[in-house]
Amino acid sequence: MSDVFLAGYSDKLSVREGDKIQFYVSSYAKSNFTASVFRSICADPNPDGPGIIEEDASTFFPKTSYPSRVQDINPGSYARSVGKLQAQKFSALQIKSWFYPTLISEKPQILFNWGLLKIFVDQNGLLSVSSNNLELISSPFNLKTHVWYQLDFSVLADGELKLTISSEIKSCTGSVQSKIDLGLVEKLQSQNEFFQIAGCQENSGESFNGKIEAPKFIVNDDEIAAWNFEESIQSLHVKASIGPDLVLKNSPTRGVTGQKWNGTEFCWKHEPSHYAAIYFHEDDIYDFGWEADFELVIPQGMPSGAYFMRLEAEGHYDCIPFFVCAALGKPKADLCLLISTFTYTIYGNHARPDFSKDWVEKTEKWNAYPHNPSHFPHYGLSTYNNHLDGSGICHASNKRVLFNFRPGFLTFGSTDCSGLRHLQADSHLITWLHRKGIDYDIITDDELDRDGFHAIKNYQAIMTGSHPEYFTESMLNALLNYRESGGNLIYLGGNGFYWRIARHLEDPSLLEIRRAEDGIRAWASEPGEYYNAFDGKYGGLWRRNARPPQKLVGVGFTAQGNFVGMPYKRICFDKKLDWVFEGVHEKILGDFGLSGGGAAGFELDRVDSKLGGDQDITILAQSFDLDGKFMLVPEEQLTHLTNVSGEPEINIKRADMVYFQVPGGGSVFSVGSITFCGSLPHNKFSNNISKILENVVKKFCAVKLKEEKIGV
Questions:
Q1: How do residues 20-44 score in pLDDT, each as one tens digit?
Q2: Which residue from 209, 457, 504, 563 could staple onto 510, CB 3.0 to 4.6 Å apart?
Q3: How does pLDDT run across 184-221, given as a tens digit for each residue?
Q4: Beta-strand runs (E) in 4-52
Q5: What are phi and psi of 582, to 5 degrees?
Q6: How far lies 679's CA from each of 89, 463, 671, 692, in Å?
Q7: Cα dihedral sign for 446, 522, 230, 138?
Q8: Which of 272, 348, 189, 339 is nearest to 528 (CA)?
Q9: How buried is residue 292: exposed, middle or buried, by Cβ count under 10 Å (0-12/13-18/19+)?
């Protein structure tokens, strides 16, 4: 698979004044590449919209040239000993372990690599042992996938080899013997090398796909190295019972069922011995580990906003996004825009199953961002994709090139509309803020998770983008605390506050999602693997963790369809709420837009009194799926005839635009739709959706708006 000519990433997605952000670049150019900073106002390449809008930010980082070099991409997770392992002179050497293969590949898959000795699963599914590429012994049968095997390999001082494999399946149990040269025995007795599990440090493309448990290295009946994987499941390191510790590379999955798991316990914290395995994949890759090429220290006076570092060389380019946030406790605006960087990362490099060649044609026609994750799977895919062995990808990180996290990237290439999501779709809102002259600060998921309530407490209003889907517990607590303390929330998306995720304590860039039991899912977690390895908490939907989004913002996910939009119809005419519709004379709202052609679309949220508590919610407008283009989400369905609400299905496949106040003095405005922000730029930002949001911001922030001519 070919690499991109020029690409890069940063060590952080968000920074504050005085913070340092490092950039990592791989360039096939013979000449230097250049780096320059631009502020991103609109990331939509659609010629029918505002178009790509950027502001030069060279005042803060002058355009600079750097030497080109190619940096390798090395997928595949493995474990490596931190120290070398020396067998010394032995009469008998044994390697014992449990293993669970999940894929028979065209390439050999290494279970254990120790200097001259390599134990691997070959292309035919035979477990083999080799030395310097010379096969010494192989299993008497072909391995089956998704079966636990016990391995026992021994070398005697006289050169006798014995390989025994046992399992619960009779046809998958047996042993074989062989003989090797005494010279090789002497070399094994004298070697002092690092021990690697499930792959090679050199990353020869021979990583193991499957689980490994309880490896042991035995000399003359004494263990000289042993690792119990049930210890420190939350860690990226494994402390040895004896011998050198292990470092885990490319974040293999922990908190997975082992050979002792029998369904009696579902949380690894309660019975760690049932979860004493580590799951490795040949396509795990969560940190490219490139060397830094240059850095930027955020200078004083650099406005809070969305930026990107543009790389250019020999006609090729890349754009690395980053966000400048306001200093903690020192806001420069009344309004805070919450940027969903965790959601962006979770979706990072999503190779969509409906991707087709005609998307490339549209990309070229619009001069959109040229690279698609579907063309570069070796850069690591998203948690909406599967590993090569069919298991779901449950880890995500920004420490790699993320193609769909670029200005101008098209998520949907076969639509008549812009077909944007995430960063690019949220730029419709950013463009609107600039067009209306509304001052704002940016805070991302990173600051909200790390600093909690203190990151946002001084703002009059917090506004989300189109799809704030993935949240940690700390983030939810911060928003709830903010709202209960008198803060105003403006939720401008759909399917928000949906999945519970965990952040790794040792590497905060590493995120984990377990897709447990319910919800719209690209894949389903295996039974017994619903609890996060990173924090030991039950994963899956926040709704199944007793914190449905309705409790925070009044509405929650109810229906999903294709990337199409519909209009709302105003249903509230209470004079107390006329301020929402000031200057709006139509009853039909948002029958237009760059996202699906309507303000209510793709994923819809509705009010549910059973989930929303005792909030006194007013539904301002609604949009119903009258054409049967949407389906209820799984958590709303019971059978093909019934659903959880007990109402006719047509009644609950809808988007609700709502307003309510909470006892602490805070207010909430929610739109219940992903495509809402796509309607803001319509008619040069002069439309009823734009006016409604303008009224809400004015009310929540008590600011005087000054219209700014941007992209008109």
A1: 999 999 999 999 999 999 999 999 9
A2: 504
A3: 999 999 999 999 999 876 656 789 999 999 999 999 99
A4: 6-10, 14-16, 20-27, 33-42
A5: -60, 125
A6: 75, 16, 12, 11
A7: negative
A8: 272
A9: exposed
DSSP character string of 659-673: EEE-TTS-EEEE--B
Q: Are strands 461-464 and 488-491 parallel, antiparallel or unpaired?
A: parallel
How far apart are alpha carbons 477 and 455 in whole angstroms?
12
pLDDT of residue 707 exceeding 60: no
Q: Is the dihedral of CA 38, 41, 43, 49 positive or negative?
A: negative
Q: How many residues does the chain have?
A: 712
Calpha distance 208→108 (Å, rounded): 8
What is d(CA 491, CA 480) in angstroms, rounded to the nearest whole number?
13
Q: Is the dihedral of CA 630, 636, 640, 641 positive or negative?
A: negative
Distance, CA of 643 to CA of 651 (rounded, Å): 11
Q: What is the pLDDT of residues 41-81, one digit of tens each?
A: 999 999 999 999 999 999 999 999 999 999 999 999 999 99
List of E strands, 103-243: 109-114, 117-121, 127-131, 134-138, 149-156, 160-166, 174-179, 192-197, 210-219, 222-227, 237-238, 240-242
Which pTM does this prediction carry? 0.96
Tokens in use for 217? Answer: 């290295």
Residue 310's beta-bridge partner residues? 36, 319
Cα angle value 99/247/450 (rounded, 5°): 115
For residue 502, what is the enclosing H or E element?
strand 499-503
Residue 611 corresponds to which amino acid? L
Separation in Å, CA 59 to CA 36, 324, 705 = 10, 15, 27
Can you read off the two tokens belonging to residue 242?
């004896």
* Tokens of residue 573, six digits: 């005419």
Please write down the HEC assignment for all residues of 232-253: CCCCCEECEEECCCEEEECCCE
Buried b / exposed e over 83-95, threshold 16 CB at 10 Å, is: eebebeebeebbb
**Backbone region of residue 414 per phi and psi (left: phi > 0; alpha: psi in -120 to 50; beta: other values):** alpha
Strands (E), 277-375: 277-280, 294-297, 305-313, 316-325, 335-339
Task: Specify the residue for token string 């739709």.
Answer: 673
Give ∠ CA 206-208-209 in degrees, rounded to 5. 130
Structure tokens, 490: 């403006």
Strand order in the sheet with 618-624: 440-444, 335-339, 461-464, 488-491, 667-670, 654-661, 618-624, 568-570, 588-589
Amino acid at 127: L
Count, in order, helices (H) and strands (E) of the chain: 10, 43
